[in-house]
Amino acid sequence: MLRVGLVVNPDAGLGGKLGLKGSDGKADLARSLGADDRSGPRITTFLNYFSSLHKADLNDISWVTSKGRMGTTWIPNEIDIGSIKTVHESQGQTSFVDTKEAIRKVIDYGVDLIVYAGGDGTTRDIVAELDKLNNSKLPLIGVPTGVKMYSGSFAASPKAAAEVLSAWIRGDLLVASTEVLDLDEERYRNGEWIVRHYAEVNTPSSPRWMQGSKQRVEVSSEEEIIEGLAEHIKEILVKEDTMIIWGSGGTLQSIGEYIGFNLTTLGIDISLGKKLVGIDLDEQGILKHLNSHSGKITTLLSPMGGQGFLIGRGNLQLSHSVIRKVGIDNILGVVTPAKLLTVRRLRIETGDENLDSEFSSKKYMKVLQGYRTTRILPISID
Known about the structure:
Structural class: alpha/beta
CATH topology of the largest domain: Rossmann fold
Largest sheet: 9 strands, mixed
CATH class of the largest domain: Alpha Beta
Shape: elongated
Number of helices: 12
Number of strands: 16
Number of domains: 2
Radius of gyration: 21 Å
CATH superfamily of the largest domain: Probable inorganic polyphosphate/atp-NAD kinase, domain 1
Strand order of the largest sheet: 10-9-8-11-13-15-16-14-12
Order of helices and strands: EHHEEHEHEHEHEHEHEEHEEHEHEHEE
């Protein structure tokens, strides 16, 4: 009998669309502002897809989990995934203490692998407990449900997580070590980008379905490239009737600085002509600006180094509602040559299957890589 642990952080990702840059300590605030559950529904998607994908030997799988919102609440009654064993129960609000307790109970019962839903903070909590229990070699598969996910233990999407688990059960994937990374969320909310390496963790190795860890690429000679990108955007896009939605990241912040915009490093900003009209906006703030504008719109996004995510990591404010309002043909990637060394494809995960399919049907997307210089990169929907 194969035992798979299943642990859900039900508060993960709540702050994303609200622009809170993480959910640590912000769950109550996020819910009071109308945030919808992200973690649980994505675990349900993962389980539904796994049930349809892995037809063989389901009777030989036992899911060891928590009763309530950290587990069983999100398991659909109508699907067959094997047997369910509850070893923990959660009630009301949960915290990292509950995550560690659930992991401890799952480990004590005995499992061969743990599937978890959360972000980098959840990963840190789980790894800390594994180390405490002298079980650091136990493989993990993360279903990405947080705001920021830089660690390499996450699959690219809930369905990708199901693909990884199914392949691992069949014996098609080996286990390899990957990095656990995280941001200091308080400093992150203040505009500081400080990523720390906390640990190594084992996970099934699949370049196709696992996202890999984020890489920060720095090349000292790229100042001229940034200046060229800024000149191109200023000449072509900064027009009185054109609204620009600026994505997060250091590349776009540096470009904005050359043009004369004081952009936030980690938020979503909007300019209209030569004026910055929206700073660090949440989903509703972006939609408000879009609904009041009748001219041209361009969204500038820079992919995440190493992982290649253009949408779905660190910019959840760009919800499927926002993207549909903008139009996928009005999204332009911006990437420096140094980042191109680690980004071979543009990964998209909007959280909306129909919208993901529209991106997939495009197959390729144009990215700006220098002054009047573009290239085409393939789109990947995992």
